[in-house]
Amino acid sequence: MTITVCIKWVLPNRDGDERFAGISLADQAALETGLRVAEALNESCTVITVGPAAAETSLRDALACGAHDVLRVDAPADTDSAETARALATYCEHSRLVVCGDYSSDRGSGSVPALVAARLGRGQALGLIDVQIVGETLSVVRRLDGGRRERLSVTGPAVLSVEGSVARLRRASLRATLSANDAIIDVVTNDASGAIRRTPEAAPLRPYRPRARVVPSPTGSSALDRVRQITDTSSSKGHGETVVLEPGDAANRILESLHTWGYVQES
Amino acid sequence: MTAPAHDFDADIIVVGAGPAGSCAAIAAARAGKSVVLVERGPFPGSKNMYGGVVYPRILDELIPSWWETMPVQRWVVKRSTMLLSDTGALNVDFRANAWGAPPYNGATAYRPDFDNWLANHAVEAGARLVCSTTVTGLLRDSTGRIQGVSTDRPDGDLRAPIVIACDGVNSFLAKESGLYPHTDASNFTLGVKETLALPKHVIDERFGVRDNQGVDIEILGGTSGVNGGGFIYTNLDTVALGVVLKLPKLAAQQKRPEQIIAELKRHPAVAPLIEGAEVKEYSAHVIPEAGLEMMPTMVADGMLVAGDAAALCLAAGIWLEGVNFAMASGMYAGQAAAEAITKNDVSSRGLSGYTDRLEKTFVLRDHKKLRKVPHLVLSDRVQHKYPAFVAGVVERVFRVDNPHPKPGVRRIVREERKKAGIGLLDLLRDGWTGMRGFG
Ligand SMILES: Cc1cc2nc3c(=O)[nH]c(=O)nc-3n(C[C@H](O)[C@H](O)[C@H](O)COP(=O)(O)OP(=O)(O)OC[C@H]3O[C@@H](n4cnc5c(N)ncnc54)[C@H](O)[C@@H]3O)c2cc1C
Hints:
The complex is a heterodimer of chains A (267) and B (439).
Chain A lengths: L1 E6 L17 H17 L2 E8 L4 H10 L3 E6 L6 H12 L4 E5 L9 H10 L2 E12 L2 E7 L5 E6 L3 E5 L11 H9 L3 E4 L33 H9 L15 H15 L6
Parallel strand pairs in A: 1-2, 1-4, 2-3, 3-9, 4-8, 5-8
Antiparallel strand pairs in A: 5-6, 6-7
Chain B lengths: L11 E4 L3 H12 L4 E4 L14 E2 L19 E11 L4 E7 L10 E3 L2 H15 L2 E3 L4 E6 L5 E6 L6 E2 L2 E4 L6 H5 L11 E10 L2 H8 L5 E8 L7 E7 L3 E9 H7 L3 H10 L4 H4 L3 E11 L10 E2 L2 E3 L8 E3 L2 E3 L1 H21 L9 H8 L1 H8 L3 H6 L1 H19 L10 H12 L3 H15 L1
Parallel strand pairs in B: 1-2, 1-11, 2-7, 4-13, 11-18
Antiparallel strand pairs in B: 3-6, 4-5, 4-6, 8-9, 9-10, 12-15, 12-16, 13-14, 14-15, 17-18, 19-20
Bound molecules: flavin-adenine dinucleotide.
């Protein structure tokens, strides 16, 4: 049983310069959290990344900081989230706890930790802004919408995704840095399911412009009535609607409504 | 590679992965010694700036056919010296297209690319490079002998019988070791530079070059009354424009360096070259300017000092060369350190191969020959009177003032000299110093 930390090595931009590549603050916090938990529970800490050979720099940094083992699953830097999660889950199966950064510093959406949790069939505590070790248990605080917080106790095997503020990554000692430079990094090929899929090209971004709303001509008898009719907001029905549906249907319904109201467009 | 003697982490620690440090590490690692190269930046070159031209002939010895892999912006085929008065300019140009083909002469290059490339050669040679690590002091044994360095990392002491300080200008290691007792601000200049983006074809047209041909322009005058000089170098799609300013004068005049650059950019001879350019980067760095007069002792028991740390930068008006002096001195330091380890004598005597090499080669020979030039170039007369004097003479020689006949050149020189307030004796003295200095 180990604590596994998943990190993503990210190039600064699409044709980025490897010298400026690295892991996000959230991944750094995940690594520090993993190391602390491993130390407290007397476990070993393994760090995994799915990425190209250049990503080994970040694994060496992790070794220098105190990771016991590191592993690189060989894959292009733009491997998509589902594929990344599948590869990660293969190597996290036996770990007691999986710690990830909340999202990577590129187009991170936070989906990888969720997909890893789903594949492993484990609970996920996400959006963590505090992780405390209390005996054998972890007491964590989640960020909720509207400034609210939720405190959870994590006892069993779980996936945690932490924000960058949870912990500051320790500075590696000189000796460990030197020996990490010479360490041989374990690499596995990602061929369990055959081909590796790439993240599709991001759609070009454009400023948000909701579709124009069609307003019927006002029908009041006086000019004042007609102006009131167009400008009065108190009578506007808005888009509020409560429906009870299964999760899949609910998601479809939300998309459909957003589309109808003009908030999303057909790509 | 031999294992370092017990109690030591390496045979040689090189501090600073600039041009001096990387060349020291390459030379020592190639000689079979175990070398650790410590750099404070996240990667070599990440913290380093300079004007922009490297003259890498010395690399023939370390990296044969270096031009095939070196990250070059443009090969310098045109060298100009520009003398600026308030509104006029005298340009002396030399062009050699042969410099644009192997074995080349000089090249513009970005430091994060160049230094990183050089440090990779050190790693390939077997040196261990540790980045993001700042050396904070020297370790000594009970007898005071240098035994390595301390760093800002936890458990950060690193032990070796020889330390090569390549930590750049104002080297605190040279100071801490007592090799560099006095620092006199008048021996330093402040170099500030703007990197200005322009499309490649615009640079080609304005500077009269094509493909990867480049231009190196050194400027005298144009520094808003502060003693110093300027430079303009072409990269592929940027132009490096900067000034080098004598520190005490800058302080006395209470001018901001960016103000002086802005004024230089507005000079009628400079403005058309950079019109429409976008500022990409602004950087500043101190330069050891006084050459031989400010050099520290370069060898102590267990320690060598190379590159800017040893004030080996050559700043002599038409030349601003530091990187080649740093690479050469670094290489010689690495070779001498390796010899000392082999002989098992790391005392200053055992390390004296370093100064022998410096004395025999261009490193100290050029400095000795040009020892008076830095002060001459930065002197008040050369700075404030000669540009206007020369520009005045040339302006009148070329001005067609018909129906008046052309005046005699001797008369023009006499009148312009008086107008600029230059005494005949001073002119002769400076001419003599210059002739002897430039040899
Ligand atoms: C504005 C300007 C223009 C110039 N133009 C030119 C030019 O066009 N051509 C030319 O040849 N020369 C030029 N020079 C001079 C040239 O930049 C230097 O002479 C040259 O860089 C010296 O090399 P170095 O290796 O000795 O030192 P540096 O290049 O300064 O390298 C020192 C290295 O040591 C590292 N370091 C410092 N302290 C520590 C520490 N405590 N621990 C760990 N690492 C440390 C630094 O991060 C750096 O990487 C210019 C200089 C300036 C400022």
